[in-house]
Amino acid sequence: MSDEHENKSGYQAQSSETIHAQSSEAITGSGSGIAPDMDYVRPAELPEQDLYHPHSFIEKWVFCQDAKVIGVQYFLTAVFTGIVGLILSWLMRLQLGFPGLAGFITAEHYYQFVTMHGMIMVVYFLTALFLGGFGNYLIPLMVGARDMVFPYVNMLSFWMFFVAVVVLMASFFVPGGPTGAGWTLYPPQTILEGTPGHGWGILLMLISLSLFVIGFTMGGLNYMITILQARTRGMTLMRMPLTVWGIFTATVLAMLAFPALLVSSIMMTLDKLLGTSFFMPTILKAGEVLEYGGGSPILFQHLFWFFGHPEVYIVALPAFGIVSDLISVHARKNIFGYRMMVWAIVGIGALSFFVWAHHMYVSGMNPWFGFFFASTTLIIAVPTAMKVYNWILTLWRGNIRINTVMLWCLGFIVTFVNGGITGIFLGNVSVDVPLSDTYFVVAHFHMVMGIAPLMVIMGAIYHWFPLVAGKMLNEKLGKWHFWITFLGAYSIYFPMHYLGFIGVPRRYYEMYDSPYMTSGVGLNEFISTAAFIVGAAQLFLVFNIIKTMKTGKKAEQNPWKANSLEWYTSTVPPEHGNFGDRLPVVHRWPYDYNVPGAEQDYLPQTAAPSEVAHTEVEKT
Amino acid sequence: MHVGIIFFLIILGSVLFHIFTPWYWTDIASNWQGMDDTITLTFWIGGGVFVAVCLFMIYCLFKFSYKEGRKVEYKPEDKKLEKILTWATTLGIAALLAPGLIIWNQYVNVPKNALEVDVMAWQWGWQYRLPGEDGKLGTTKVTNINDENPFGINVDDPFGRDDILVQSDYINLENNKPVKILLRSVDVLHNWYVPQFRSKMDAVPGIVTFYWFEPNKIGEYEVLCAEYCGVGHYAMRGGVEVQSTKDYNVWLSEQETFQDLIAKNETLEFEDNKLAKNNNINLKQDIYKEE
Ligand code: HEM
Ligand SMILES: [Cu+2]
Ligand SMILES: [Cu+2]
Fold it and tell me: Is residue A109 exposed (0-12), middle (13-18) or buried (19+ Cβ within 10 Å)?
């Protein structure tokens, strides 16, 4: 093995001699007192990863193997789909708030918009952004690795995702248009006449999803193995930043959940193309019996939600992790109950595979399942609540910088708690009966998995922008961006719950003049107006980025005075290989802020014990 | 400072909105008051937690906002506090889950005396079938469905003959009499939902699903389809009229049974045949004339 390493360029793979040299250096002095001993780090067991260096523009920026560039590529592609999703939501809100104003929005179009909006936002925007975007950029930096362990596969992963997005977008232009089956794609309706896009549209959707899963698997293997195998010396699992824990657990969930989506996509494709009947019972359409028979529509729902529920946590867990780190850094205080936080992340992840049928209480499955799934669902609320307590307890007796990043975190706490509480309504079987399939559900999931993770994404952008681009985003614009987005989004979704109480069903193109609904007209107009404003307010961020790149203040090396490794790279922004000649060695967890006795209010993860012998740091 | 105040106003606004909202649930018209009560309970406990968490956060903003050199607590863990919080949360959750499960138990156990109503759904409409004098519904099959047998009743099932057929989106129900809704669909998923009754269930092609309720307020209500079923989903409406026993019985006696329908079809068929024969004869005569 090591022979191969030697003749490659770039970071020299250290031959076994150098490894020995390093370790003996670390051991020298042992025996003469305690001080040198306490800095001891075990010798490196493996030679360092050697990196592939690009030879051309295309290799550097297009088919790039540097996880940081791949991260940015994922990020930009996901944001592009997010913008499409946002525009679709505007069109829907236009129809709902002001029916008939835009004559071109027919019922067919409306359902196509709902479907594409939902699928794009959940899968192509949030999942790709958190795992592909933040995951790629941050994992190697935060665990102290030079890159992902399989850079080539990582590059393929992005391009597979890219093709999936192209296929998805192509479905807007095929005969019949994109599928309008709802993002849950429930058969039999999905592939039958009567649903818009039941020909080409649904096929492209299923193909695109399959490609996404394949691409994601390549990336996911990388994230998992990098975290398990490529951590730098001293970076024990219990010293990893919670961001890494969140992304790691989410990736494991994704690797277990996405196969269910893949098989159900394939089975449905077969039902559509070859006339198999996995999900298709005997069906009578326009007076004729179709050539299907014996299949089970509910089987699809089980498969879909076996993927779909963990999917919620695939989005939520990285958000939990990131927000924990942001809160700790900007409150200048250690995260409260780190071990509890880690176990909560892992526990929530594991439990999330036992709750899927809470989406199916009124689906016609055996009603006795309700008891089991209601209990497991409410049990998940306990670790989730613990995480919330720990976030606010981290603020307590801290020294809170109220900057743009912190504002997004606070916005996250409010919207997440709000959405979490309404989740307890919906998880509690019999309470779900009147509320399921109404706007209460729409409000709930937007609050908890739309707005709350979006708050974290925004906070993360303001937090890590200096690292990625080397410049500080403008605080004043950032605050305007935050307040308009947060207040606007809250006033879209908080009152929307009450439409659900009235009984307005979701996925309704038009309410007509249902007797109890006329009172909701004004509310719908208000919600739509707020939605237009919130969407437009995102221009603050675009403008901020453009302005900052042109005239912004240059960022110092570690502008937020954070502890985790991504801020201790050899250059800012970090270059290929991340850490210069030598990988950092880690001596502590990333949350040593305001340690009693320390000179500064932070201790980098790399600070050796002998440097801080005079402090009262707890063993981590 | 400002930040704390704005967040405080948001929380205050949310609570005030909840108290004074003109948009809240429609007056209940069934026995499922327990669902509403559990929702109210969840609002108290859940809403309380929401307000408490947010107020604590706001307090921290006022009390601990950045000051150079502020003394910050360094205490990575607090076992006791974490334990208290875990148990308190578990208790709160259990208090919510218990009534939820009790009511679900009622929901899945249908009272013996419930009237069975067959609700048949298709893209995009409803029709209904009630048991006749024998009190039993006849069995059905999708493949039996045709113009003469719109419900697909098995013709040789003796229970089916006297079934009462309501070929309309509108149905009448008797006040204070429990009904067991039996749902079936001939094509895709649907869901027969009346907001005032609080209850719902999907109709799934291939199987029969059920739920029950007891209407307890005379009046007319709108039926909405609550499971996406294609472009016509939003227009798939119907209606229910809850009537006093007397009015209901009058209505019931005016409805046609499967037997009536068969008889009507036979006379129709007979007339059709006669017509056809006559036509043939006429045709033949025409042909003869030509020759
Ligand atoms: C401010 C931005 C947003 C607005 C105004 C908005 C608006 C809407 C509207 C009007 C619907 C259709 C409701 C219906 O007819 O049933 C909808 C559905 C949906 N949205 Fe959003 N949305 C936004 C952001 C998001 C985000 C960030 C997510 C990510 C989780 C998301 C996920 C979904 C999903 C999964 C559906 C359900 C689609 C379906 O019923 O098949 N939305 N949204
Ligand atoms: Cu779920
Ligand atoms: Cu429907």
Answer: buried
Q: Evaluate whether the domain defined by B115-265 bears CATH number 3.30.450.20.
A: no
Picking from A371, A414, A594, the nearest residue to B7 by CB comes out as: A414
Single-letter amino acid code for the residue at A201: G
Contact A572, A553 (CB under 8 A): no
pLDDT level of residue A69 (50, 70, 90 thresholds): very high
Q: Which residues contact A240 (CB under 8 A, 6 or more apart)?
A: A142, A143, A227, A231, A248, A590
Instruction: Name the β-bridge partners of B125.
Output: B122
The answer, yes or no, to whether residue A1 has pLDDT greater than 90, is no
pLDDT at A2 over 80: no
The single-letter DSSP state of residue B231 is: T
Across the range B217-226, mean pLDDT stands at 92
Contact of B142 with B217, CB cutoff 8 Å? no
Distances (CA, A) of B92 to A282, A385, B43, B44, B87: 46, 11, 12, 11, 9
Q: Which residue has the tokens 């613990």?
A: A386
CA distance A358 to A108: 29
Specify the 3-state DSSP secondary structure of A560.
Answer: coil
Q: Contact at 8 Å (CB) between B129 and B151? A: yes
Residue-range domain boundaries for chain B: 2-65+77-108, 115-265
A340, A435, A507 member nearest B233 (Cβ) = A507
Nearest to B93 by CA among A425, A221, A493: A425
pLDDT-based confidence at residue B274 (cuts at 50, 70, 90)? low
Mean pLDDT rounded to a whole number for chain B: 87
- Given a cut of 80, whether residue A37 has pLDDT beyond it is no
Which residues share a beta bridge with B237? B224
- CA atoms within a 13 Å half-sphere pointing along the CA-CB vector of A282: 11
| Average per-residue pLDDT for chain A | 87
Kindly state whether B224 is in contact with chain A, defined as any CB-CB distance less than 8 angstroms. yes
Tell me phi and psi for residue B128, to 5 degrees.
-130, 155
pTM: 0.90
Specify the pLDDT at position A161: 95
Helix (H/G/I), strand (E/B), else coil: A82:
helix
What single DSSP character describes residue A135? I
Interface of B with A in 31-90 (CB under 8 A): 32, 34-36, 38-39, 42, 46-47, 49-50, 53-54, 56-57, 60-61, 64-67, 70, 72-78, 81-82, 85-86, 89-90
Separation of alpha carbons B152 and B146, rounded Å: 7
Task: Return d(Cα A344, Cα B168) in angstroms, integer.
Answer: 53
Strand pairing category for A471-472 and A553-554: antiparallel
| Token pair in block for residue B278 | 């006559």
Task: Give CA–CA dist A449/A310, Å, rounded.
Answer: 12
Q: Quick one: how far is CA A227 from the chain centroid?
A: 17
User: Residue A558: how many CB atoms within 10 A of its CB?
Assistant: 18
The CA distance from A28 to A462, in Å, is 44
Q: Could you give the CA distance from residue A160 to residue A530 in angstroms, rounded to a whole number?
A: 36
Whether complex ipTM tops 0.85: yes
- Identify the CA nearest to A253 among candidates A306, A299, A332, A176: A306
- CB of A552 within 8 A of CB of A471? yes
Show the tokens assigned to A47: 């030679």
The Cα–Cα gap between A514 and B88 comes to: 43
Atom number of ligand 1 nearest to Cα A184: 41
